[in-house]
């Protein structure tokens, strides 16, 4: 990660391109059945499944299928989305029983011979269709003091940090707060008080930052009965993370830190 | 209707809004209204870096950065503003580091820096390492760091509150020379709570607009679905002019067919562009800095290669970004996210295969005119007391006719901070302006029209036609013919918009309704953009007219100022008044722009 900038040899002015450069060719189309869990308490207390058959293309993602329904068939289908390329964290949902971002899940990578099921993420109150109340999730995040605390006087220039120290917490800086991990955790499903993986990931990001002075306070928070010890290392969170963060490993490192830092 | 009172209301929770909130929140009773959750904003999608002349890895100074910004903007930049930005860039980066931003580091532990398009040593002699970065997720880190610090300072957010109107009042006033005029004053904003459809009025002494851009006017764009020009359109409808709206940046390297951004850092780290003949064609267009020429030049060169038949792929409609000569370990360290995008969305392995790319609509250089202290202008000389704007929604103008890469992350930090401080300071002495009678009337009427519409027109169909015509006619090459073609389509779509019908009639999370409202904003902004483009009969920066291929300083070294005015007509379009504003010069005389 923090390797210093290197000079690269000047590339050739002209090269022979492989025939296949850029891939491409005709983009294949195929039919899918999209099956979405619907719920709107303004009109009914009962949730239901709606199904549509759609013609989609090889580069389409689950988000494109949802948009096709919303824009061409049923404008009341409701879901959050924004950036549409896996960076804003708006569209975590349960796709074929697994938490993913709809904008990062290509339809062609799913089994299109069967209906593709889409449900809201679990463990958070459903508001409407695929929208859940994110407030409990952000509440846990805020409780672990997700900000740098440095008690020494600030230098005029930057605080120094070696590339190795920077690398130490790199993995957990990637978190986009999409809640895919927390809402995939069986412990969180049964006990909404549990901080959940995302909050622990964000605590990890600061606990292992050499510039931070509040690691012990965060470890104390996470040593709580609703803290890291509830984790049963089922690895659901690591599988769910759309950013490829090794979530379970980060949680293990926080557990070890609690034990070794002798609170 | 519920009425809330705050000293300062900030609209938008991207980089500019949250940077403003960190300042304002510590000085005044502040609320942030955002149509998304804060960490969903598109600042998070920025990748490559944020320039500041720290000189951590080689000689550099802020004057060179100012010059590059002015030249990069093809001399339409207000030089006083560029100077402020380049000077304050250094503290802006250091502020972020102290807030916790995990920048990449040099072996000595300082913030590492890398090359970026148009940023040069000593007035164009060679590329310089000026961009401070965190891998290729600098924007993500900025957004997270700013949100973390908002949490630290207990900033009050109202999430999923769509601001739909700006409340101003007008008072009779007299200029120094004795001429009477109408002085606008800000009273607050009207917002819509997505969760339940309720309307809230936020009365405020100061209002800061930090609502971002309007990329969704185009089909091929790096912008989020939610970037629909809301703030610009709301200000425009409230009688605030818009400046330089014809200037849109097309980022050279969008994933072909998708528009997803691949950072310029790919070229900063040594990647190059090739055409179907395997040729590094930028050697012909910008002999000195080649692939690191500013974005307008690279984007036009790419489009020209395709137009002259040297495009790649089955339809010869893209070129290639070649990283294959770089070490995979280097790519993993410096460009992990964008190479992952190429794999995920196109199935291309950047270690061994070049990546198909084509220009994608990326950034609006124009917007709501402001002073260097982020105060919004109601005309060339008059500010609106209490009204501020920062970030992409604003036009300071530090970007002129073409923004340099990394200068947007800088803009949001420098002018977001200035806006936050100025808004809080103004609020500390100002009184509340009395709300106009029926403050929600305009909003209620707009929503009712959309809710009750039964003309059968679909929002998505109109939006798709708008985006098609903008891509076809208003992209990197424009002419009177293509602009008029686009304008004709836009006028037709504006008619059809009156017949829009939505399907979701509920109150809860009615995004069907909001998408229709957003389409109204897009159509207004598309009209303003095309009228401004038609008027500017020259080529400058991001605005290239094939019928007027040269820059014309004699007639067009001026900012465009477009006002909504029912009495006026511009370029055959009713309801728009066109004026100009002089460009501010300090140190640099306009020169021919070569790289």
TrEMBL record, chain A:
Its cofactor is [2Fe-2S] cluster; [3Fe-4S] cluster; [4Fe-4S] cluster. This is succinate dehydrogenase. It comes from the Bacteria. The keyword Iron-sulfur applies. Signal peptide: none annotated. InterPro entries: 2Fe-2S_ferredoxin-like_sf, 4Fe4S_Fe-S-bd, 4Fe4S_Fe_S_CS, Beta-grasp_dom_sf, Helical_ferredxn, SDH/FRD_Iron-Sulfur, Succ_DH/fum_Rdtase_Fe-S, Succ_DH/fum_Rdtase_N. Pfam families: Fer2_3 (PF13085), Fer4_8 (PF13183). Belongs to the succinate dehydrogenase/fumarate reductase iron-sulfur protein family. Residues 1-24 are annotated as: Disordered. Residues 165-187 form the 4Fe-4S ferredoxin-type domain. Transmembrane segments: none annotated. Its EC number is 1.3.5.1. The keyword Iron applies. Keywords: 2Fe-2S, 3Fe-4S, 4Fe-4S, Iron, Iron-sulfur, Metal-binding, Oxidoreductase, Tricarboxylic acid cycle.
């Amino acid at each position: 990660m923090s390797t210093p900038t290197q000079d690269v040899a000047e590339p050739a002015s002209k090269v022979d391109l492989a025939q296949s450069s850029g891939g491409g060719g005709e983009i294949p189309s195929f039919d899918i059945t999209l099956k979405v869990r619907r719920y709107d308490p303004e009109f009914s207390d009962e949730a239901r499944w709606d199904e549509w058959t759609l013609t989609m293309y090889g580069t389409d993602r689950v988000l494109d299928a949802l948009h096709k329904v919303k824009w061409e068939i049923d404008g009341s289908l409701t879901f959050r989305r924004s950036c549409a390329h896996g960076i804003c964290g708006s569209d975590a949902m349960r796709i074929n029983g697994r938490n993913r971002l709809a904008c990062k899940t290509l339809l062609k990578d799913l089994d299109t011979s069967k209906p593709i099921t889409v449900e809201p993420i679990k463990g958070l109150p459903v508001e409407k269709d695929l929208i859940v109340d994110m407030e409990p999730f952000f509440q846990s995040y805020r409780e672990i003091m997700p900000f740098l605390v440095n008690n020494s006087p600030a230098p005029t220039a930057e605080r120094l940090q070696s590339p190795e120290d920077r690398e130490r917490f790199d993995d957990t800086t990637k978190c986009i707060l999409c809640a895919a991990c927390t809402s995939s955790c069986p412990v969180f499903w049964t006990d909404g008080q549990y901080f959940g993986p995302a909050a622990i990931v964000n605590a990890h990001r600061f606990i292992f930052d050499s510039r931070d002075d509040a690691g012990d306070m965060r470890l104390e928070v996470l040593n709580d009965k609703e803290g890291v010890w509830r984790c049963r290392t089922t690895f659901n969170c690591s599988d769910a993370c759309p950013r490829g963060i090794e979530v379970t490993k980060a949680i293990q490192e926080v557990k070890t830190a609690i034990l070794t830092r002798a609170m | 209707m519920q009425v809330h009172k705050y000293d300062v209301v900030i609209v938008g929770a991207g980089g500019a809004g949250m940077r403003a909130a960190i300042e304002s929140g510590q000085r005044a009773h502040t609320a942030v209204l955002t149509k998304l959750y804060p960490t969903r904003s598109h600042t998070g999608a920025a990748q490559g870096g944020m320039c500041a002349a720290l000189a951590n890895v080689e000689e550099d100074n802020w004057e060179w950065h100012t010059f590059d910004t002015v030249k990069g903007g093809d001399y339409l930049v207000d030089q006083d503003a560029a100077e402020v930005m380049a000077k304050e860039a250094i503290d802006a980066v250091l502020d972020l580091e102290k807030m916790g931003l995990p920048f990449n580091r040099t072996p000595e532990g300082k913030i590492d820096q890398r090359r970026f398009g148009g940023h040069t040593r000593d007035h164009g002699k060679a590329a310089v390492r000026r961009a401070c970065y965190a891998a290729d997720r600098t924007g993500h880190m900025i957004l997270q760091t700013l949100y973390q610090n908002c949490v630290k300072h207990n900033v009050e957010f109202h999430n999923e509150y769509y601001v739909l109107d700006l409340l101003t009042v007008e008072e009779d006033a007299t200029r120094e020379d004795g001429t009477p005029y109408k002085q606008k004053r800000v009273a607050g904003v009207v917002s819509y709570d997505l969760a339940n459809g309720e309307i809230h009025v936020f009365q405020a002494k100061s209002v800061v607009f930090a609502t971002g851009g309007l990329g969704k006017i185009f089909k091929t764009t790096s912008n989020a679905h939610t970037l629909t020009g809301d703030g610009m359109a709301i200000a425009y409808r409230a009688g605030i002019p818009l400046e330089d709206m014809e200037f849109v940046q097309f980022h050279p390297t969008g994933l072909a067919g998708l528009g997803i951004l691949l950072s310029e850092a790919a070229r900063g780290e040594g990647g190059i562009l090739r055409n179907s003949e395997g040729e590094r064609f930028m050697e012909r267009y910008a002999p000195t800095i080649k692939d690191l020429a500013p974005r307008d030049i690279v984007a036009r060169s790419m489009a020209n290669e395709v137009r002259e038949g040297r495009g790649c792929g089955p339809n010869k409609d893209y070129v290639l970004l070649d990283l294959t000569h770089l070490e995979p370990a280097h790519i993993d360290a410096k460009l992990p996210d964008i190479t992952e995008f190429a794999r995920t969305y196109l199935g291309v392995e950047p270690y061994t295969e070049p990546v198909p790319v084509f220009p994608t609509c990326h950034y609006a250089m124009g917007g709501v005119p402001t002073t260097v202290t982020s105060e919004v202008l109601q005309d060339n000389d008059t500010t609106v007391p209490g009204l501020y704007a920062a970030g992409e929604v604003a036009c300071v103008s530090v970007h002129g006719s073409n923004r340099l890469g990394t200068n947007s992350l800088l803009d949001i930090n420098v002018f977001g901070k200035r806006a936050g401080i100025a808004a809080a300071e103004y609020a500390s002495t100002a009184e509340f302006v009395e709300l106009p009678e029926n403050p929600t009337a305009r909003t209620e009427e707009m929503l009712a029209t959309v809710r009750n519409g039964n003309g059968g027109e679909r929002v998505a169909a109109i939006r798709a036609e708008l985006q098609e015509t903008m891509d076809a006619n208003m992209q990197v090459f424009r002419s009177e013919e293509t602009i008029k073609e686009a304008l004709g389509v836009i006028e037709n779509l504006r008619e059809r918009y009156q017949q829009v019908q939505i399907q979701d009639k509920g109150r809860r999370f009615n995004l069907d309704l909001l998408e229709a409202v957003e389409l109204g904003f897009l159509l207004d902004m598309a009209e303003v953009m095309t009228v401004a483009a038609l008027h500017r009969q020259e080529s400058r920066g991001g605005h290239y007219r094939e019928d007027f291929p040269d820059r014309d300083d004699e007639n067009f070294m001026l900012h465009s100022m477009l006002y909504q005015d029912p009495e006026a007509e511009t370029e055959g379009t009713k309801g728009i008044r066109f004026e100009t504003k002089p460009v501010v010069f300090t140190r640099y005389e306009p020169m021919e722009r070569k790289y």
